[in-house]
Amino acid sequence: MKEPMSWWRMQRIAGAWLGLAGSTLLCSAEAAGASALDTVQSFYDALLTTMRHGNELGQSGRFTRLQPIVHSMFDLPFMARMAIGSGWGTASSTQQQQMIDAFERYIVAIYADRFDTYSGEQLQVLGEQRSDARTVVTTRIVDSNGEPQNLNYIMRSNGSIWQIGDVFLNGTISELAIRRSEFASIRQRQGVDGLIAELNRKANLLSAPPSPTPSHADR
Predict the structure, then answer these.
(1) Whole-angstrom Cα distance, residue 148 to residue 133?
(2) pTM confidence score
(3) Contact 42/161 with Cβ under 8 angstroms?
């Protein structure tokens, strides 16, 4: 696994069998009565499966493997709306859907890039905390050097399923708050359409397979 990106870095931080595994994870997360903790556990199981086969899947394969998982387990319309901020209300319905789609591709590409291989990392789901204000699933990621990072998942209940609405590092650093600051700068310079294009460009860069090394004959 690569050194975690953005909000983690701030504090130092395919085969039929695989398709069947993905279907099983999705079904378990969406099963009637599944808890918020179940959703996060299923997400971590999917990440670990992808990491263990990261080299054979490749960058684009990991992206393809994780996209339906993220689509199912993250409340992407809510997250996109919060990350875009004030620009959301002035966007057309078409632009809003394009922003949701671009945001999804960007988030999937980040996970596919950062959780690329397995070297003994542990993705631990610790517990679930409920209050009148929100439901939080607490977790810990232990890297291959034994260094832990605590992540809290803010969960949203949508009908019969629980979905991830935000992620906090060490209980204080919000992923959505960081994205909102980043996206606001782009939107101010390039507008809504420019932000959509930039998110898709970043997703394409992160999910593209590496360029082949030229042979001596090509040089």
Answers:
(1) 27
(2) 0.81
(3) no
